[in-house]
Specification:
This protein is of the alpha/beta class. 37% of the residues lie in helices and 22% in strands. Helix 3 (87-96) links the parallel strand 4 (72-75) and strand 5 (100-103). Helix 1 packs across helix 12 and helix 7 crosses helix 8. The longest helix has 15 residues, at 200-214.
């Protein structure tokens, strides 16, 4: 497949870097200000070196990416809420041109799911978005294999930053502000960690899961969300006395989405530590399925993108 990649952050760069291993060719790569575009394939290594050196990726304009000859648009621009722009428009243009689109950007799938599916229905192209939920963990493909109709609920831990903070608070008896500062120093938390610690990032992922289960009907505004900022260290100490701990747990069903701190057994499946994520898929016929792993990171998320590309039919 010929890939046109919009977004040159950790995920977009990793997709470009790994595409050749999966047998695909990169014909375009763009950040917000510049692009390298060549229908015969761009020199990926040189483009990535220019990006690493804070130079222009190439001489083209990002808009040129959508005008070149490609098979799959990889939408890896930053997630935005509400109208989910510009990511939604990028995907719309790909589908209207009868091309495929693979999203790592959560915004369009969480906020405008029904519109995406309507565009897909009128297109020869398809959309896939495994990378929007759980990084390298095959959450959506597992649901697809089981069929969404047989899945009754999905719950779990889908934010590594919040999980790291809660793990450290419990293990070391430290307060929230101390551990947050530590996480920022280690690069586990962003300089502005709001989306991670207030539950928004996890909620977006569970909204996407609810949309898949119910075939739409949900956006972030429909989710009940509570973050971890107000959890005192003493709460984790009290939980430990009872053989439990606290994790930021999300749940998606056809009835709605909830994300918030929950008490879980200290040695239970949902008590993953550090930055690990875990997803528990409840099914009618196959019981409870568990998948755990790294839920973020450039190469990890890129594997989900490229696995999606591999599932697409030829145009």
């Amino acid at each position: 497949m010929r890939l046109a990649i919009l977004g040159a952050g950790d995920v977009g760069r990793s997709v470009a870097d790994l595409a050749g291993e999966y047998g695909h060719e990169v014909v375009a790569l763009a950040d917000s200000t510049s692009a390298a575009v060549d229908p015969d394939g761009i020199p990926v290594e040189a483009a990535l070196e220019r990006k690493a050196g804070d130079e222009a990726i190439g001489p083209a304009d990002p808009e040129d990416v959508l005008e070149t000859e490609y098979d799959v648009l990889v939408e890896a621009t930053p997630t935005t809420l509400d109208d989910a722009e510009p990511g939604f428009s990028h995907v719309r243009r790909a589908l209207e041109a009868d091309r495929h689109a693979v999203l790592a950007n959560k915004g369009p799938v969480a906020e405008r799911y029904e519109e995406l599916r309507a565009l897909e229905a009128d297109s020869a192209g398809s959309i896939r978005f495994e990378a929007t939920v759980g990084g390298a963990i095959p959450v959506l493909s597992t649901i697809e294999d089981c069929t969404p109709q047989s899945v009754t609920a999905v719950r779990g831990v889908l934010n590594g930053t919040a999980n790291f903070i809660l793990t450290r608070m419990a293990a070391e008896g430290l307060d929230y502000e101390h551990v947050l500062a530590e996480a920022q120093d280690l690069g586990v938390a962003e300089a502005d960690p709001t989306f991670d610690v207030d539950g928004t990032d996890a909620a977006l992922k569970f909204v996407i899961l609810a949309n898949v289960l119910a075939d739409g009907g949900f956006s972030l505004a429909d989710a009940t969300v509570e973050g971890i900022q107000s959890i005192p260290g003493s709460a984790l100490d009290l939980a430990a006395e009872d053989g439990r701990t606290i994790r930021l747990i999300g749940e998606a069903t056809r009835d709605g989405v909830r994300v918030g701190p929950r008490l879980v057994p200290e040695n239970g499946a949902l008590a993953v530590t550090g930055t690990r994520n875990i997803v528990q898929i409840e099914t009618r016929n196959a019981g409870s399925l568990h998948s755990s792993g790294r839920g973020a990171g450039g190469p990890e998320t890129a594997t989900a993108v490229l696995s999606d590309v591999g599932r697409l039919p030829p145009l």
